[in-house]
Amino acid sequence: xxxxxxxxxxxxxxxxxxxxxxxxxxxxxxxxxxxxxxxxxxxxxxxxxxxxxxxxxxxxxxxxxxxxxxxxxxxxxxxxxxxxxxxxxxxxxxxxxxxxxxxxxxxxxxxxxxxxxxxxxxxxxxxxxxxxxxxxxxxxxxxxxxxxxxxxx
Length: 153
What we know:
By secondary structure, this protein is mainly beta. Helices cover about 15% and strands about 40% of the residues.
């Protein structure tokens, strides 16, 4: 009988540990993306991009990302997969240039630093999602590091 109770105690303890392992990691809070962001580092298809002339901030609302570049203004509608680790982001260009083009990416937010990497291929219906926040040579990956713009109050 002692052996039976010992086995029950072990099973209950092990079950408790398994339940703890199943606790969900905190979800990505997409509302914290909203605001203005300055691009501090950018790599495009494996090539570093000089960001010092990127004076216009990236503006993120609850459902759109707007960025201005030398090639014009780009507006993406987006959704976030908050359960993925890192968080996934699915984007589609809604502005005229490349309208309808989709890009799949990943996001990481650490305080006032935002990291974004996505694959951009106008020929692909659903480009692959990068696995890391890097852009290697001969890839179609864009990788950004951004800092939140502090608003004057």
